Amino acid sequence: MSKQTIGFIGLGLIGGSIAKALRAKHPDLTLIAYNRSKDSLIEAMADGTINQAMDTIGPGFSDCDIIFLCAPVSVNIRCLEQLKPIIRPDCILTDVGSVKTTIHEAVARLGMTKHFIGGHPMAGSEKTKYSSAKVHLLENAYYILTPGEGTTDEMISEMVCIVKDINAIPVTLDYHEHDRVTAAISHLPHIIAYTLVNLVRESDNPDGMMRMLAAGGFKDITRIASSSPEMWQQICDENQTQILNMLHLYIDRMTEVGEAIQDNNTGKLLDTFASAKEYRDDIPQSHAKSLLPPTYEIFVDLVDESGAIATIATILATNGISIRNIGIVHNREFQEGVLHIEFYDGESAEKATELLNRFHYVIHLRK
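Request: output the structure for the sequence above.
Response:
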């Protein structure tokens, strides 16, 4: 693989992280990239991630063995049209989008099925630029590969090797099934979170009592409503059919729950809650990353007194640990620790936990 040339169209968070991970694994690879923003290309050249920055999607990509399409789906489709006349007969095209049917259909329309295998690395962040890309971003993340009609076993094997090289976990899935699965476990939850937040916003009293008292449970299930509104609007357009199917099923379930509450049907409610708890508790607590942007947080059990927060902040700062957010939890209904500390990465959270334990603080991790 060290003699291969790999191209990137779009060098943001995901494209940049894949490029960084490949560079770390195979230092002799030739990596080239095009990005609308020149700042990302300049930064990637300066840190040695890419060998060459391209001004356009043109003949410079004709030597590529593999090309990663890392722009929004609609942009990737336009890029396919530009790449069709210039790529090699054996070039592999892959993407990193969270919706697969749209681009697979575009590939078929363009007669490029022998080149394409879809991809979806299930990791990310609220940050999208190359400056936030990390060599370990995809480590232990599921990386779904979606073969098409023209995808060969050799193409699948090569992409599986690449996924393993960047320390992600390859999963092969039919692209229609991919969109159905992600509609249920990612797209619908985002819609529910956005809608629930708006419901509370519209139902709140003039004093903002709901916002003030919002506790761990509400924040947990609505955290993803802080994701990019533009990105989720696009995903709803691209995966419309599957999202609507799941949304209608969800509405039916909510109607059933509402009827059970109205009818005082305690048996139905208990069965609903118990079966959900059993299924939720059975979800493996693996190290694989989820579809949701990660949070790195701890809760410290301490007395809310003058100087307590400053003491902890000083301990962390003097040991080189940066804090993203810190604050007192006023509603402790669902959480034992009164001080909530959020970090920029998992390594910092782990280091802080070990350090504060040495100072005899009691630490709680949210499950």
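DSSP finds 13 helices and twelve strands in the chain.
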